[in-house]
Amino acid sequence: MPEGWVWDETLYRGSAPYYARGRPPYAPGLADRLAALIPFADGSRLLDVGCGPGILTLPLAPHVAEAVGVDPDPGMLAEAARRATVAGVANARWVQARAEVLPAGLGRFRAATFGQSFHWMDRERVAAAVRRLLEPGGAFVLVADAKEPRADPGDPDLPHPEPPYEAIRGLIREWLGPVPRAGQGLLRHGTPDGEAAVLAAAGFAAPERLRLPAGGVWVRTEDEVVAWVWSLAGSAPHLFGERLGAFEVELRGLLRDVSPAGRFADRPPDTEVRMWRSPG
Ligand SMILES: C[S@@+](CC[C@H](N)C(=O)[O-])C[C@H]1O[C@@H](n2cnc3c(N)ncnc32)[C@H](O)[C@@H]1O
Fold first, then answer.
1. How far does residue 155's CA lie from ligand 1's centre (Å)?
2. Going by C-beta distance under 8 Å and a sequence separation of 6 or more, which residues neighbour residue 267?
3. Which ligand 1 atom sits nearest the alpha carbon of residue 16?
4. Spatial separation of the C-alpha atoms in residues 86 and 137, rounded to whole Å
5. Ligand 1 near 98 CB (within 6 A)
């Protein structure tokens, strides 16, 4: 959990409908690579913890007998269920819970995935609890966007301007204050790293690592860039309260200054995977 920050259920309030179309996609082929690495067998089950709108759950579901997505945010789960129906995924179910207080009777899993969610949790507690739910040799998997800057800022081959990230962050600071917000609290010290030590303390051995290269150019509409802003905990819709519409007008003005045609292009980040095996 971030230092000096207390979790509350407003963390992603209002973000869910924007999340899947706002966030950069994970690297192409991620689900197949994960499935081969884990690997799944007949009857294997998946637990996707902090599943959001099913970003990892849905592409992994065809590889397992059952996928269980867990998230405390009811909006995220409603969106996950809606997207499952659209995608024709019938073997996923959705459980509203914090990872720290998983309900009894979930059963055992071949793998537990955490897509950019572990840093919001009481990691020591969750690692220990999830270890008990994994089959021997089962996989504890962290998936994240690579944090390092991409190799080619200001890429001359992009067909449209890049979203003005710095100006957007500046506008969010202007409206919400200089210290990043998250739920009802402030993220004074960012979000934690050091996952290897947390997993080691829970009895997992050293991780296997995989970095999957991003897909090609990512073209986005103005609406999709706005959706990216709403998808972030630090600028989730609830944080603006009644000023949400006024903020959106300014945000769109900023975007139109950069791209009057309302088209942006970018290169999504690589995807990083770290996988620990349960000793049983
Ligand atoms: C950044 S989103 C990630 C969504 C998806 N897993 C992905 O890969 O894009 C983080 C998700 O973690 C969930 N989350 C935050 N704190 C949590 C906790 N303590 N237990 C379970 N899920 C949590 C949030 O509700 C949110 O849906």
1. 31
2. 150, 152, 155, 158, 214, 216, 217, 218
3. 27
4. 33
5. yes
Structure-token pair, residue 254? 């900023």
Both tokens of 162, joined, read: 């890049």
Give the residue carrying structure tokens 């998808």: 231
Q: Which residue stretches of the chain have pLDDT < 50? A: none
Closest protein CA for atom 22 of ligand 1: 50
114: left (phi over 0), alpha (psi -120 to 50) or beta: beta
Task: Look up tokens 């409206």; give the residue.
Answer: 175
Per the document, the length of the chain is 280
Domains of the chain: 16-277 (3.40.50.150)
Q: Look-up: residue for tokens 């065809």?
A: 62
Handedness of CA 233, 234, 240, 241 (dihedral sign): positive
The reply to whether the predicted model has a pTM over 0.85 is yes
CA–CA distance, 196 with 185 (Å, rounded to integer): 26
- The amino acid at residue 258 is V
Three-state SS at 232: coil
- 118-142 pLDDT, tens digit per residue, is 999 999 999 999 999 999 999 999 9
Q: Are 121 and 191 in contact (CB under 8 A)?
A: no
Question: From ligand 1's centre to the CA of 164, what distance in Å?
Answer: 26
